Amino acid sequence: MNRVRRLFFLSLFFVLMLPGAAYGEQVYRVQPGESLYLIAQDYGISLDEIIDMNSYLRNPDYLVVNQLLIVPDEKVQPEIYVEEAADSESQDAKEEGGEGINSKSQDAREERVEFTKGASTVEGTVNSSGTSGVADSVPKAGSDESTTKKEPLTLGELFREYRDTVFLQGSSKSNKIALTFDDGPSGVTCDQAMDLLQEYNIPATFFLVGEQVVNHPEVVARMVEEGHTIGSHSWSHKQMDKMSPERFEGEIIYTEEIINYITGKRAAMVRPPYGTINREGLEYLRQNGYSVVNWSVDSLDWKYPDDGDQVIINTLKDVRGGCIMLFHTLQGNEPSKIISQVLPEIIYTLQSQGYEFVTVDELLSIPPYKDEQPKNSSGSWTLTH
């Protein structure tokens, strides 16, 4: 009878070892006197779990009032009574001279780990005889399968091949991060963004659409005057990996020329619309001295213009040292709620954790404009003679 009871509680123990139920996320604003540990307790999760949910934290022991945190969307109630029952049964078994549930569960756990390790090293499939199907999956010499054309590279694989040209983020060991805005210039939201940046005394990088530069030259001039960096976001904001080589080249050159006409600077950084580009486009940009700058944190602010908390979650969950954050200055006459209400909270939160906002070129140590070198260690600009 005791053996049956031990097996029953052992089964419950393994159920507890399975991953917990998934839960949604919401934004929490730190209140006076709170610590991360107390907030985690209040939501029924461990300190490690709340740190994992807020990987942007550089100093989890230091919180400020109104700092943003990501927490479960409802308070989790851990089912600790099962563990207590298991512990009680284990003690009974020990008193009766049995091995106890802890030693048995430890043996079972070790077996489970070893099985998992073994399974993770198996490649290919397992056939009906129970042997690995790796050999069957390798094309035989001279077969039609061995001469099949290779699949096209994914965008990630292509970016890795052009790692000297394509940049997604800086060093994760740094406390520096970059705030970037796409789709400008605009008559309302760009001024909104620059007013905010001026208030917090931080620079940003604006990737501009050429045909919009024509419509808002005064906004572009203000960007440069206030110390922000400008990059190219194509002329027409069309998907560049679908363009002919001639059209692609025109999109780059026309945008460079109009920016140069207004600012006297030739943008050396390009962000293709939607982040997509093909090999021919990358080769052209590499050979002509451009860098491609995409992003590592996507706020999806264009998708959630009225849901500030969702934009906060989208942003903070991916922030690390060296990250490049993507926001937008969209066209139109309506001010952006994200820029006016959400970005101040995000900037405040990240600055409270010791992050320093810099332009993309400084983060990556690449030239922002042609005929200019990257910023040196003192942070000043050095012109090429």
Name the descriptors.
3-stranded parallel β-sheet, 385 residues, single chain, 15 helices, alpha/beta, globular, disordered C terminus, 6-stranded parallel β-sheet, TIM Barrel
Structure description:
The chain is 42% helix and 11% strand. It has 385 residues and is of the alpha/beta class. It has a domain at 158-364: TIM Barrel. Strand 9, helix 13 (308-316) and strand 10 form a beta-alpha-beta unit. Helix 2 (36-42) crosses helix 3 (47-53) and helix 8 (189-200) runs parallel beside helix 14 (337-352). It is globular and about 80 Å long.
CATH topology of the domain at 158-364: TIM Barrel
Task: Name the average pLDDT.
Answer: 81
Class based on secondary structure composition and strand pairing: alpha/beta
What's the shape?
Answer: globular
- What is the share of helical residues? 40-55%
Q: Give the class-level CATH name of the domain at 158-364.
A: Alpha Beta
Going by CATH, the architecture of the domain at 158-364 would be: Alpha-Beta Barrel
**Structure annotation, total helices:** 15
User: Secondary-structure element order, as H and E?
Assistant: HEHHEHHHHEEHEHHEHEHEEHEHEH
CATH superfamily caption of the domain at 158-364: Glycoside hydrolase/deacetylase
- Total number of strands: 11
Please give the largest β-sheet: 6 strands, parallel
